[in-house]
Write a structure and sequence with these properties.
There is one protein chain. By secondary structure, this protein is mostly helical. The protein has one domain (about 5-120): Ybab, Chain: A, CATH 3.30.1310.10. The chain has helices at about 5-35, 75-100, 110-120, and strands at about 40-45, 50-55, 60-65. Strands 1-2-3 form a three-stranded antiparallel sheet. A hairpin with a 5-residue loop joins strand 2 and strand 3 (about 60-65). The longest helix is centred in the N-terminal third of the chain and has 30 residues, at about 5-35. It is rod-shaped and about 80 Å long. The chain starts with 6 loop residues before the first helix and ends in a 5-residue tail after the last helix.
Length: about 130
């Protein structure tokens, strides 16, 4: 019935499997909670542009210093995009850390989550 395994040993294997599932579920819940709270803010090198992104990489805030009026729109646009990329990069690093701390960076769940954010951000973050 148990392929040479005692009933006690089989029950212990089932209990260990249940504990493992419960632990993974707790880790996944912690990961979801922590990632949903992530934000990242970056400031341009000249300090004139500040951008904040949410956990999904969406821009939630842009602050332009009044001094940006004295430069070309092209310069401001370029600085803005550079700052968005910096905020996104910071978010990506935070997600990698949270993933490693909860489910593990080398787990299937961890790899899928990191790959998903990388795809949403549209950048080759490492």
């Amino acid at each position: 019935m148990f392929d040479g395994e005692s009933a006690d040993a089989a029950l212990e294997r089932i209990d260990a499997w249940e504990r493992s599932l419960a632990r993974r579920a707790e880790q996944a819940q912690e990961l979801a909670r922590r990632t949903s709270e992530l934000t990242a803010t970056a400031r341009s090198r000249d300090g004139l542009v500040e951008v904040t992104v949410d956990a999904e990489g969406r821009v939630t805030s842009i602050h332009l210093d009044e001094t940006t009026r004295q430069q070309s729109a092209e310069t401001t646009s370029s600085t803005l995009m550079e700052t968005v990329r910096a905020a996104s990069s910071s978010l990506f690093k935070q997600l990698q850390e949270v993933t490693a701390d909860t489910v593990g960076a080398d787990t299937e769940t961890g790899r899928m989550l990191v790959a998903g954010l990388r795809k949403r951000l549209g950048e080759p973050y490492e």
